[in-house]
Backbone:
């Protein structure tokens, strides 16, 4: 892509499009409550927003979209709410199994899948296998399910320690690249841009290792109301940032 950016430039054109965008899909419950609906109606609307934004990212040419769907702390919610979220995920995966190949969409899961119901895990394995057959350059959506940044780091440390105990690795070999390879996000570049809607100014245990040099974008818009124009605004804000990575601007 050239340096010249026309005045009619839209988010997908011109230079400096983030290769990887990560989103904390927050505000579903408040969106529903404000309309006198049950919280589960907010999750349903939020799932629609995810479909829409994933398609938009793909069309723009963003290569990776990582979304926070369910945290390691979200089990604290009512059984009704947790099972409604899992049912929506199941519905999405059933659709994905039928469409991802023709749409060239790869799907990956980040998080500890062990406490997830076998039926949903089997579907995740199926989408994983389909993804393996797609081209590495195809758009990839990463769904963070039972995901916590600390949990991801701890599971990585346990695996690395086990490899050391087995004599396959030495502690002194550990560096950024080697450690990244033990994380759920192995092989995925760090997100350049992390977006959190709903007005909360925190990470809530999202991508703690990967966010070291990410740019953050916060908006008061609730996730079910988040649309293409909002994403354009986030990308425009990202483009206006001066990323120095600890250096000094020349
Ligand atoms: C995000 O929306 C979805 C999940 C955490 C699963 P919330 O359900 O947290 O919505 P608010 O923050 O209560 O409005
Ligand atoms: C973060 O949102 C998790 C997801 C969006 C899946 P929460 O709503 O759980 O975070 P807190 O509780 O406001 O920090
Ligand atoms: Mg929330």
Residues:
């Amino acid at each position: 892509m050239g340096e010249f950016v026309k005045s009619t430039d839209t988010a997908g054109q011109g230079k400096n499009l983030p290769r990887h965008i990560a989103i904390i899909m927050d505000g579903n419950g408040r969106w529903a409550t404000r309309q006198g609906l049950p919280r589960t109606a907010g999750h349903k609307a939020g799932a629609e927003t995810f479909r829409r934004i994933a398609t938009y990212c793909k069309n723009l040419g963003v290569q990776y979209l990582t979304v926070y769907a369910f945290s390691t702390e979200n089990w604290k919610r009512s059984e009704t709410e947790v099972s409604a979220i899992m049912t929506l995920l199941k519905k999405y995966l059933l659709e994905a199994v039928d469409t991802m190949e023709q749409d060239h969409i790869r799907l990956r899961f980040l998080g500890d899948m062990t406490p997830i119901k076998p039926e949903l895990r089997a579907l995740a394995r199926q989408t994983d296998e389909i993804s393996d057959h797609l081209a590495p350059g195809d758009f990839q959506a990463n769904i963070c399910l039972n995901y916590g940044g600390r949990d991801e780091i701890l599971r990585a440390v346990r695996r690395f320690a086990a490899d050391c105990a087995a004599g396959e690795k030495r502690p002194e070999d550990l560096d950024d690249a080697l450690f990244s390879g033990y994380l759920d996000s192995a092989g995925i570049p760090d997100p350049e841009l992390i977006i959190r809607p709903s007005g909360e100014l925190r990470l809530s245990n999202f991508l703690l290792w990967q966010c070291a040099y990410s740019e953050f974008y916060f908006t008061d818009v609730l996730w079910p109301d988040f649309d293409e124009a909002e994403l354009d605004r986030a990308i425009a804000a990202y483009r206006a940032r001066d990323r120095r990575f600890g250096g000094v601007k020349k």
User: Anything to note?
Assistant: Helices lie at 28-34, 39-60, 79-103, 118-133, 149-165, 176-180, 228-239. The mean pLDDT is 95.
